[in-house]
Amino acid sequence: MFKFFNANPFEEKQECLLIGLKDTPEKFSGILSELDAKFENELTELVKSGDISAKVKEISKIHTLGKLNVKRLLFVGLGKENQLSFDDVKEAFGKAFKHAKESRLQSVAIALDTFVTDAISHEDAANALSEAFALATYEFAGYKQKSNEPEKMVEQINIISETDQNEIEAALTVGYAFGKATNSARTLVNLPGNMLTATDLAQYAEELGGKYEFEVEILEKEEMEKLGMGAFLAVNQGSVEPPKMIVLKYQGKDTWEDVIGLVGKGVTFDTGGYSIKTKSGIVGMKTDMGGAAAVLGAMEIIGELKPEQNVVAVIPSTDNMISGSAFKPDDVITSMSGITIEVLNTDAEGRLALADAVTYAKHHGANYLVDVATLTGGVITALGLDKTGAMTNDEAFFEQVLEASYEAGEYIWRLPITENDKKRVRGSKIADLNNSPGSEGHAIMGGAFVGEFAEDTPWVHLDIAGTAVTSKEHDLGPYGATGVMVRTLALLVERFEPVK
Ligand code: BES
Ligand code: ZN
Ligand code: ZN
């Protein structure tokens, strides 16, 4: 896939050479000045006239008409060098790879050094390149009957750079692992509910565990009954599909301490139950396992890169269905922790599933917890579709999650949980908690509820209801599942320092 060349790119035949073009008033340097010379300063003229654009993420293509071994030059604008961020570079690569894919190119050479700035090292550029390549060229195959036309894919990327090959190759490996794992999560989320049941998700997790030698535990309904997981089991009560509590353990330290628990909501379809969703609100609820997908994606990266950390992933998986046996509003259920819950809304099922999963993660020794869930429509009202909502009970641990999210380019924004909010979730007359304390501050109510089960364990809640899916194509992927939080979780684990 990725091949490194120290050589002059013009010595080998290349289908296409990708060049990052900065908006610098001075003369070209490096490979660009070489090219300019070969074209008798015509390149300078084309940039001046705007035929080749240096505007951020703008693509310009010229054919070399047999003048060079390289058939086409593909320029991607990088704008002003001092304003260029790591995310811009990643998106610029994304845009260029999308263009290459649409142009049916099979091989692309890249002048890596043209993407380097004072703030963005060669390794950063290589990392951005390989991650962007995986992300931008991702496609969900879907179920349309295929035409006979074979799809051409970009299969070969030739990296041309004057720096150290080993470091570049290491950065390429990491970026590609991040991109591929995000794509795995995207595929899980894009799969329809009839193609991905809790049993299917458990099987996927088992295969992942086999590949990376994780310890795998899949709890069946009977075992969960014995453990008293009444909150999670209530959600499954109306379903013909068996529930699964999926556990993956990765031990990267000598001893099982400072364990990070990653908990992901794995509702494979959410009808809302008897508090049924509207006919438009129900469409898209196959994506209600986006949290589970994020956790599994992060585990894939952890399996590939093997950080010196301990991680336990816990995924409660079921669908939320309606039948004569389904749970109902007014039911009172008892969670594994012993906390009793009055069900006021069967559509607030995610927090019930997470309640037992959080308790079970602690049971497996998790000292730090991050839960990821498509939990509330309220987070979309509060923050829109481009920010993940975050809540926490621990400032220092939250800082680490925030740092990881910045580095991943996945934005999170914190919402508070006040004493008053806690009072509201504790506001049942007949049980310890109620699962739906009213329509004000929905997102916070969801977080505050899960927080009751985290108790004193440092915990961050990530509500991805707005960010798990996008209705628009973007530079780093198509419309549909985004794979959000895969990279944030993986970076958090990689960089994690115990806070207590
Ligand atoms: N799965 C939904 C949240 C959701 C909404 C995800 C839109 C993706 C897009 C969740 O289970 C839910 O229905 N939440 C309710 C909670 C309410 C009943 C307290 C909501 O947000 O409306
Ligand atoms: Zn729901
Ligand atoms: Zn849900």
Ranges with pLDDT <50 over ≥5 residues? none
Mean pLDDT over the residues: 96
Helical run tally:
15
Count of DSSP strands = 20
Helical residue percent band: 25-40%
Strand content: 15-25%
- The structural class is alpha/beta
The molecules bound to the chains, other than polymers, are:
ligand BES, zinc ion
- What overall geometry do the principal axes of the alpha carbons give? elongated
Through-space gap between termini? 43 Å
**Major sheet description:** 9 strands, mixed
Radius of gyration: 25 Å
Walk me through the topology.
Elements: E1 2-5, E2 14-22, H1 30-38, H2 42-49, E3 59-63, E4 70-79, H3 86-102, E5 107-111, H4 122-136, E6 156-160, H5 165-190, H6 198-212, E7 215-219, H7 221-227, H8 230-236, E8 244-251, E9 259-264, E10 266-270, H9 290-305, E11 310-320, E12 332-334, E13 340-342, H10 350-363, E14 366-373, H11 378-383, E15 388-392, H12 395-408, E16 412-414, H13 419-425, E17 433-434, H14 442-454, E18 459-463, E19 469-470, E20 480-481, H15 486-495
The chain binds ligand BES and zinc ion (ZN) (2 copies).
Tag the structure with descriptive keywords.
500 residues, 15 helices, alpha/beta, single chain, binds ligand BES, elongated
Describe this structure in words.
Strand 12 and strand 13 form a beta hairpin. With 500 residues, the chain is of the alpha/beta class. 37% of the residues lie in helices and 21% in strands. The chain is elongated, with a radius of gyration of 25 Å. The strands form 4 sheets. Strands 7, 8, 9, 10, 11, 14, 15, 16 and 18 form a 9-stranded mixed beta sheet that branches. Helix 5 packs antiparallel against helix 9. One zinc ion binds next to strand 10.
